Amino acid sequence: IKAEKLRIKICALARTQLSDIEAIVDVSQKAQVPMEAIVIVGSSKVRHFVEGWDLKQIEKWITASIKFALKNNLTVNFLTEDGTRTEPETLKRLYALAIRKGAKTVTLADTVGAITPKGTRKIVRFLKNEVIKSGCPG
């Protein structure tokens, strides 16, 4: 990429765990190319129950992972796993936090294949109006 001066963006998926982001930093530094870390965390009650997570812990992971990525010259894209089955207020809280901490891009993926086109419009509109346009409350 560097030698050929290719104009492509390199992205790598990482859990909100520093070890995942360290691996991206390592590749970026060795290759001497800028990279984007797509930072992902499970957000639904199902994931929280199965994993034994709570929102306060998830918020700490989001904060630490984004801070570490930015400190190491990665751009950040925040993504929730199982986001389409997550309560709206939880989505609002997590996406707003990620944006406030420095995520330049946010992604909403239907990682379980459960959403309809109408549902997609509603959730995108919700995130756009309640998080992005409102200045990332919370």
How would you briefly describe this protein structure?
With 138 residues, the chain is an alpha/beta fold. It has helices at 18-31, 45-51, 55-71, 88-101, 117-132; strands at 10-15, 35-42, 75-81, 105-108.
What does the model show?
- The chain has 138 residues and is α/β, with parallel strands linked by helices.
- The chain has 5 helices and 4 strands, in the order E-H-E-H-H-E-H-E-H.
- It has helices spanning 18-31, 45-51, 55-71, 88-101, 117-132, and strands at residues 10-15, 35-42, 75-81, 105-108.
- The protein has a 4-stranded parallel beta sheet with strand order 1-2-3-4, covered by helices on one side.
- Helix 4 links the parallel strand 3 (75-81) and strand 4.
- Helix 1 (18-31) packs parallel to helix 3 (55-71).
- The longest helix has 17 residues, at 55-71.
- The model has no long low-confidence stretch (mean pLDDT 91).
Low-confidence parts: none
Give helix and strand order, one letter per element, not per position.
EHEHHEHEH
Give the spatial strand order of the biggest sheet: 1-2-3-4
Number of E-type strands: 4
